[in-house]
Amino acid sequence: MARALSSELPGLDDAEADERLRSEGFNELPRSGHRTPLDIAIDVLREPMLTLLLAGGAVYLVLGDLKEALILIVFAGMSVTITLVQEARTERVLEALRDLTSPRALVIREGVKKRIAGREVARGDIILLGEGDRVPADARLLESRNLLADESLLTGESMPVRKIVADATHTAGARPGGDDLPYVYAGSLVVSGSGLGEVIATGPRSEIGRIGQSLHQLETEPPRLLAQTRRLVWLSAAAGGIVSTLAVVLYGLLRGGWLDAFLAGITIGMSMLPEEFPLVLAVFMAMGAWRISQARVLTRRATAIETLGSATVLCTDKTGTLTENRMSVAVLRTRRGRALHAREKPHEPLADEFREMVKYGLLASEPEPFDPMEKAFHNLARDRMAGASLSPHWKLVRTYGLRPELLAVTNVWALADGNSNVFGAAKGAPETIAELCRLGPKEVSGVKEAVETMAADGLRVLGVAKVSCPKAALPESPRDLSFEFLGLVGLADPVRPSVPAAVRQCRSAGIRILMVTGDYPATAIAIARQAGLDAEEVLTGRDLESIDDAGLMRLLRNTSTFARTMPEQKLRIVQALKADGHIVAMTGDGVNDAPSLKAANIGIAMGGRGTDVAREASSLVLLDDDFGSIVKAVRLGRRIYDNLRKAMGFIFAVHVPIAGLALLRLIFGLPIIFTPIHIAFLEMIIDPVCSLAFEAETEEKDVMDRHPRPPNDRLFSPALIGWSLLQGTLVLVLVAGIFVSTLQIGMPEDEARAVAFLSLVVSIVSLILINRSFSASLITAFRSPNPMLAWIVLAVAAIMTLSLSIPSLSALFRFAPLQWDNVTLAVVTGLIALVMLELLKPVWSERLRS
Ligand SMILES: Nc1ncnc2c1ncn2[C@@H]1O[C@H](COP(=O)(O)OP(=O)(O)OP(=O)(O)O)[C@@H](O)[C@H]1O
Ligand SMILES: [Cu+]
């Protein structure tokens, strides 16, 4: 059978595929772990705030205050709605991200190769499978080049199984498991080789669908932050519970009136409960993942958002991350040392002496190349050898793939006319090709010298060789063939223009960059220099073999460039760095990179050239493979964390005056300042809305000029809590002062309450303004626009105007109409808070930023 070139297969056309997707459904499995409305409802009902609101409503009902009772029940309804809307929004954002992180499939439709989402694969689609791919759907193989699949997800069997091409004797219906089946199954993994198949079953009709397994799940919880937040909520709730109980008992005993006592207790409980924390955290994480996705980086694990800000080392590979991965042949050098700078006269036909090596380079590549190096060979042959491509008489009979211990690709071809000899073409690392050709020491040193010269310009150098042997005598390893050396090819791959600036940013942000590449040492150094990395010294994988872990840890403190490394060595590097106390981000793309991506604190996979396995093991996926995007993500991670701290500090501060006023009233026997309605209004509308302003806040001026945050830093540091207490206490003193003094000069209670409430709301807005930036002054912060904040301030002003001017609302809040001078008084009180805190801020800002 002649090798079916994939371009000869037309595949489905788009209309057909759409039609099948409509009638048979998308290629996806019912998702487990999806929360049902009942789960969500139970969660919502467990919110203590809801219980408090309902209890308050019940007390009012017993007291016969129907209106108050209704209002609290309405607030309870709002609490439920806010939670549900929030859940739905978070779920939607996560859903969108899940779609993007779901595996992609390479299919042929209407004769062209296309990358589509895995869920859009339809029955009848022709799929292309390569090493590291997750098989998107069950398929019958039409072509298999040494295809090995890991079907452990379906069979539990961890040994990969061999796949063969289907012929007429195979009937459908074979089950997974065992060697030499012509089928591949959804959810299994291509461990090596490549192939082409026709989809026979998708979604729930696939084998995995029948077992009812589910695949990828996006982890949604940021464990450390969530744990810290939960702890704080618990502590506050416990404290609130104790204080409220005490208040109820004391009030009941001393003043009688148990219902009033309950109401007072509920007020205190509500005012001390920081129920906004988890809500705000959820919003920040979902919005954070969205913001990071705008920088073309997908978040697979929400933990990455918090870890990004403390990353101290970034290990990056070279090809495609630092460079563009667009290769072109720059230099050809024959065995005799004749060199041609291929880019000088790009369209002139090649001189005869260079043709053979290009031809064998081409034969050592895939007929339809995906690898940029192989594309470069094809391009050169097309442009300068009059389109010499593989003649139809050639037939590929055997491929020896790239292996970590043998960095070369060998293709063996037979002529269709039945000649008993076959022709092997090899290309690969020059050392390896020299070894395959069994070059003598003198020639080896000559080749080495030539490679060094080419590599010093940052070129990737490949050796090319040929061999011919009887068809029957093909050995297991290409080492057993006697190759003839043809020459060296230097491939240029420019450094991405964004890289040097991104490297500089990392430097000022205290993040070290290590380059860990599979390429030749001299090439690694040249590219490292072009990228602006430290490149005094380079260590190779071979060097690492003779060093123990402790030695490696020491070496890593000074060496930043690693060449000819193998994936296991990447893992050792990650582990040694972690043992040295670093927070490690590591990029990777291959199947073998998965362990090091998992081991790193932040595994970063490539969306473009990466394999599904690498993506599944990582917590971030770069959509455009660009190093610059990693730095953007780090920057965003730091900003998100800063803003989260600001929001948390703000909420903490706001609770101080609210709870304080409720307590003061009890202690000093003042008239009722705030009822549960005021508190519900403040805590359920004003606060959460205000915290959103922080999410949209622009980054601190020094985000990328300070050192990474220590990984065990607490979100609620003592400095932050102290600052919040200070702010809250100041507002408490001012508002309580206003309330008491207006009462003293004989102002009616309802008017004094309105003044106090208004001054509290103005103070809350002041707190937002103060906390927008840890470091910048109010005026500087004003210059960086935050449209969200402007809207929020307008909304708060509108709400306050309405509640003071519409009689029915005023009655509800027990506000008397305010004269202008009293409005001014309230606003001025809030502004005093603003000015005083602005003056105090410099004292704390140093501590807050560290
Ligand atoms: N398709 C190929 N044909 C021949 N040789 C190859 C091929 N791909 C890689 N090599 C050889 O193997 C070496 C290591 O390749 P490997 O893929 O490990 O590096 P890499 O991952 O591309 O580099 P980096 O770590 O910079 O991304 C290359 O320098 C090259 O000599
Ligand atoms: Cu609260």
UniProtKB/TrEMBL annotation:
<keyword id="KW-0406">Ion transport</keyword>
<feature type="transmembrane region" description="Helical">
    <location>
        <begin position="791"/>
        <end position="816"/>
    </location>
</feature>
<feature type="domain" description="Cation-transporting P-type ATPase N-terminal">
    <location>
        <begin position="4"/>
        <end position="65"/>
    </location>
</feature>
<dbReference type="Pfam" id="PF00122">
    <property type="entry name" value="E1-E2_ATPase"/>
</dbReference>
<dbReference type="GO" id="GO:0140581">
    <property type="term" value="F:P-type monovalent copper transporter activity"/>
</dbReference>
<feature type="transmembrane region" description="Helical">
    <location>
        <begin position="752"/>
        <end position="770"/>
    </location>
</feature>
<dbReference type="Pfam" id="PF00702">
    <property type="entry name" value="Hydrolase"/>
</dbReference>
<dbReference type="GO" id="GO:0005391">
    <property type="term" value="F:P-type sodium:potassium-exchanging transporter activity"/>
</dbReference>
<keyword id="KW-0547">Nucleotide-binding</keyword>
<dbReference type="InterPro" id="IPR001757">
    <property type="entry name" value="P_typ_ATPase"/>
</dbReference>
<dbReference type="GO" id="GO:0005886">
    <property type="term" value="C:plasma membrane"/>
</dbReference>
<keyword id="KW-0479">Metal-binding</keyword>
<dbReference type="InterPro" id="IPR023298">
    <property type="entry name" value="ATPase_P-typ_TM_dom_sf"/>
</dbReference>
<feature type="transmembrane region" description="Helical">
    <location>
        <begin position="232"/>
        <end position="254"/>
    </location>
</feature>
<dbReference type="InterPro" id="IPR004014">
    <property type="entry name" value="ATPase_P-typ_cation-transptr_N"/>
</dbReference>
<dbReference type="InterPro" id="IPR006068">
    <property type="entry name" value="ATPase_P-typ_cation-transptr_C"/>
</dbReference>
<dbReference type="InterPro" id="IPR036412">
    <property type="entry name" value="HAD-like_sf"/>
</dbReference>
<dbReference type="InterPro" id="IPR050510">
    <property type="entry name" value="Cation_transp_ATPase_P-type"/>
</dbReference>
<dbReference type="InterPro" id="IPR044492">
    <property type="entry name" value="P_typ_ATPase_HD_dom"/>
</dbReference>
<comment type="similarity">
    <text>Belongs to the cation transport ATPase (P-type) (TC 3.A.3) family. Type IIA subfamily.</text>
</comment>
<dbReference type="GO" id="GO:1990573">
    <property type="term" value="P:potassium ion import across plasma membrane"/>
</dbReference>
<dbReference type="Pfam" id="PF00689">
    <property type="entry name" value="Cation_ATPase_C"/>
</dbReference>
<dbReference type="GO" id="GO:0036376">
    <property type="term" value="P:sodium ion export across plasma membrane"/>
</dbReference>
<dbReference type="InterPro" id="IPR008250">
    <property type="entry name" value="ATPase_P-typ_transduc_dom_A_sf"/>
</dbReference>
<keyword id="KW-1133">Transmembrane helix</keyword>
<dbReference type="GO" id="GO:0016887">
    <property type="term" value="F:ATP hydrolysis activity"/>
</dbReference>
<dbReference type="Pfam" id="PF00690">
    <property type="entry name" value="Cation_ATPase_N"/>
</dbReference>
<keyword id="KW-0067">ATP-binding</keyword>
<dbReference type="GO" id="GO:0012505">
    <property type="term" value="C:endomembrane system"/>
</dbReference>
<dbReference type="GO" id="GO:0005524">
    <property type="term" value="F:ATP binding"/>
</dbReference>
<dbReference type="GO" id="GO:0006883">
    <property type="term" value="P:intracellular sodium ion homeostasis"/>
</dbReference>
<feature type="transmembrane region" description="Helical">
    <location>
        <begin position="647"/>
        <end position="667"/>
    </location>
</feature>
<keyword id="KW-0472">Membrane</keyword>
<dbReference type="InterPro" id="IPR059000">
    <property type="entry name" value="ATPase_P-type_domA"/>
</dbReference>
<protein>
    <recommendedName>
        <fullName>P-type Cu(+) transporter</fullName>
        <ecNumber>7.2.2.8</ecNumber>
    </recommendedName>
</protein>
<feature type="transmembrane region" description="Helical">
    <location>
        <begin position="822"/>
        <end position="840"/>
    </location>
</feature>
<keyword id="KW-0812">Transmembrane</keyword>
<keyword id="KW-1278">Translocase</keyword>
<dbReference type="InterPro" id="IPR018303">
    <property type="entry name" value="ATPase_P-typ_P_site"/>
</dbReference>
<dbReference type="GO" id="GO:0046872">
    <property type="term" value="F:metal ion binding"/>
</dbReference>
<dbReference type="GO" id="GO:1902600">
    <property type="term" value="P:proton transmembrane transport"/>
</dbReference>
<feature type="transmembrane region" description="Helical">
    <location>
        <begin position="715"/>
        <end position="740"/>
    </location>
</feature>
